[in-house]
Specification:
362 residues, 22% strand
Length: 362
């Protein structure tokens, strides 16, 4: 007979020793039930096969699917138990987008509650954006928890990471909990130090495995389009999004392009109408075009409207007033092939490219 304890580490006092029948295959025992003393014995004696059977991932784990939080036209954007980093230049609207998207997830019943640890901004911004009444309603329903540094200091908590550590140690249900961190630099003193980044993201991963979804806002390097910090951020996050926005009188258009992704994420675009804070999904390629590109596309469509059977690419460029080697226009033609038009080789001369309106396709 073999006696073993429930200790997780050498410095933890074992509780309620359990007598285990040695005839039971060790692969059928939970690793937590083996105890540190028995693990040390296995390692010291070089019981390699026994160690493998103990640490073996059960085969039913390979039947698990990625659990996307999809709704409406929004697909492959965010998953359960994930770490999502959003990077952009200052003033782009990271917090605005994150909170509006979190509100939408609550309305869709895809999450149970939101914890917004907001160490960057002031609560007055939510009123100016027309979000305050919605957030207050969720606060009353205990679905929204907003935390600022002053609340932490008032309760003798000087390090906001203590909240994450508490989430790791709790036995409470954390499934379908979304935590927004504003912003990353407030949680990692030195973003360029690999060890600090690794330790922090390991904490996030441990708590994410218990059911938490993280949206972490961070800043690009000043004057650049690249996130600020260690490259380990890319390695340890599930996805890093580059966010850009275009602001109009009545709306903001957000585009999010993934820089690194663990799963089959899709680039996303959203239109946020100020009236009612309504969020709509858009076509990414269309929303991501610059004003100059949109102008060119509009001109191309007008020309195709007058050439229903198609037009030679060279003639098209000429009518646009563009050089036949103009890369901007030629790239646009390729990017939007099978979206607004089709590109075909001339049947009589393969060197000639014909552009046809998309509506002629049957």
């Amino acid at each position: 007979m073999l006696t073993k304890d429930l200790g997780y580490a050498a410095n933890i006092t074992p509780i309620n020793p359990i007598v285990v029948d040695e005839s039971i295959p060790i692969s059928n025992l939970k690793i937590a039930e083996i105890g540190q003393q028995e693990i040390n014995k296995i390692l010291k004696n070089g019981e390699f096969e026994r160690l493998l059977s103990l640490t073996l991932t059960q085969k039913d784990e390979f039947d698990r699917d990625v659990e996307w939080l999809d709704f409406g036209k929004v697909t492959n954007f965010i998953t359960k138990n994930s770490i999502n980093v959003i990077s952009s230049n200052s003033g782009t609207g990271k917090t605005y987008f994150s909170t509006v998207f979190a509100i939408e997830l609550l309305k869709q019943n895809l999450i149970r509650k939101v914890i917004h640890i907001n160490l960057d901004g002031d609560t007055s911004v939510f009123r100016s954006r027309g979000q305050s009444e919605t957030i207050k309603k969720f606060i009353d329903e205990k679905k929204w928890f907003h935390i600022r540094m002053q609340e932490l200091l008032k309760n003798k908590i000087s390090n906001p990471n203590e909240i994450i550590k508490c989430a790791i140690s709790t036995n409470e249900n954390l499934q379908e909990t979304l935590i927004i961190l504003d912003s990353l630099a407030n949680f990692i003193p030195k973003l360029n130090e690999t060890q600090q980044v690794t330790e922090f993201f390991n904490m996030l991963r441990t708590s994410a495995n218990k059911g938490i979804i993280y949206i972490i806002n961070t800043h690009n390097r000043k004057g650049e389009e690249e996130f600020s910090g260690s490259g380990m951020i890319l390695n340890l996050a599930d996805v890093l999004w580059s966010l850009k926005s275009k602001k109009y009188d009545d709306k903001i258009v957000f585009t999010l392009e993934y820089q690194k992704a663990r799963y089959l994420y899709k680039n996303q675009a959203f239109e946020l109408k100020f009236a009612g804070n309504q969020l709509f999904s858009l076509d990414f390629q269309e929303a991501n075009m610059t004003d100059n590109q949109q102008e060119i596309v509009t001109k191309i469509l007008n020309i195709l409207e007058q050439n229903q059977t198609g037009i030679n690419q060279g003639n098209l460029l000429s009518q646009l007033g563009r050089d036949k080697y103009d890369k901007t226009t030629r790239n646009l033609l390729q990017e939007h092939n099978n979206r607004y038009w089709t590109i075909e080789k001339d049947k009589t001369d393969s060197r000639v490219v014909i552009i046809k309106p998309i509506k002629l396709i049957i």
